[in-house]
Amino acid sequence: MKQRAKWFLLLHVILGIYAGSSVCSKLAARQPFLSAAFVLLYGGMLLALVVYALGWQQVIKHLPLTTAYANKAVTVVWGIVLGALLFGESVTPRQLLGAAVIIAGIVLFVRADQKEEGGQ
Hints:
The chain is mainly α. It is about 85% helix and about 0% strand. Keywords: Membrane, Transmembrane, Transmembrane helix.
């Protein structure tokens, strides 16, 4: 169980990195094309995607694929949080409701998946 929690935590870290790649992308889009800032930010986005891809491969070796994919929806929640914190974007009640539904769905899915594994 401890190992599963470790991989579950790593899954959420790499999903946060994946969402962070969008931050680099948005910041790069604000820079003049091929300027030093553009190249650094775009490179940061590519690096984040490589780290995500390598981490994802390790996670799906240790967690059920259904669990890993169900948790990918949390990147939407990360997007809302990062948009609000870094870009001052407003968070609407619909977005909060959507985030709550996503989190509730992930929790319910993971619990059902754990019960199913325990019952076999």
